[in-house]
Design goal:
It contains five helices and five strands; from the N terminus they run H-H-H-E-E-E-H-H-E-E. The protein is of the alpha+beta class.
C-alpha cells in the first residue's frame, strides 16, 4: 500500500473517531462548533486572497486558494433542473454546487460514519468562511440537497450584509 494513502487512512480514521466521540458526548451542538471552527480556519487560511462579487469566479478562487494549502475540495456550479444558475429568494441568492472531491466524504467512508454530521458541518464552515473572504460583504451558508458516495450536491445561499 502507498505510504501516503496509509497515512491518510490513519488520520481519516482518527478524525472520524474524534467526530463520533464529540457527537456522542456533545450532541447537536457539535454541528455549530464544527461549522464555526471551519469558518475561522478558512478565513485565516485564505489571508489576502483575490476577491470578487461573482459566485462562479469565487468558486474558482476558493478552490485554487485551498489547493495551495493542500486542501483539495473542488466544487463547480450545478444547474440541475433549474432554469437559471442563480435564483433570487427574497434578500438571499441561491446557487447549487456539486462537490465530486471531498476529503470529509472520504474520511466518513473510511470510518463508516454517515454523512451530514459534524465533519460535514466543519467542511460547510470552511466553504462558507472561504466564500465570505472571497466575496466580501456576503454571509454564506451551505445546505445539503443530496449526499452520496460519488458526489454531493449542495446549495450555497448568500446575502449581502447590511
Amino acid at each position: 500500500m502507498n505510504a501516503h494513502l496509509e497515512t491518510f487512512q490513519k488520520v481519516a480514521y482518527f478524525c472520524g473517531a474524534l467526530a463520533h466521540g464529540a457527537e456522542s458526548n456533545i450532541g447537536q451542538g457539535t454541528h455549530s462548533i464544527c461549522f464555526l471552527a471551519g469558518k475561522r480556519l478558512a478565513q485565516e487560511a485564505l489571508g489576502d486572497s483575490e476577491t470578487t462579487s461573482d459566485p462562479v469566479q469565487a468558486l474558482k478562487i476558493v478552490a485554487k486558494a485551498l489547493a495551495s494549502r493542500g486542501i483539495i475540495w473542488e466544487g463547480e456550479e450545478f444547474l440541475g433542473e433549474r432554469a437559471a444558475l442563480i435564483e433570487q429568494d427574497g434578500a438571499a441568492k441561491k446557487m447549487r454546487i456539486i462537490f465530486r472531491t471531498c476529503m470529509v466524504r472520504s474520511t466518513l467512508f473510511i470510518y463508516a460514519r454517515e454523512q451530514r454530521q459534524s465533519l460535514c458541518h466543519m467542511a460547510h464552515g470552511i466553504f462558507a468562511g472561504a466564500m465570505e473572504k472571497v466575496m466580501p460583504g456576503s454571509s454564506v451558508k451551505l445546505e445539503v440537497i443530496q449526499a452520496g458516495p460519488e458526489a454531493c450536491i449542495k446549495e450555497m445561499i448568500w446575502e449581502e450584509k447590511q
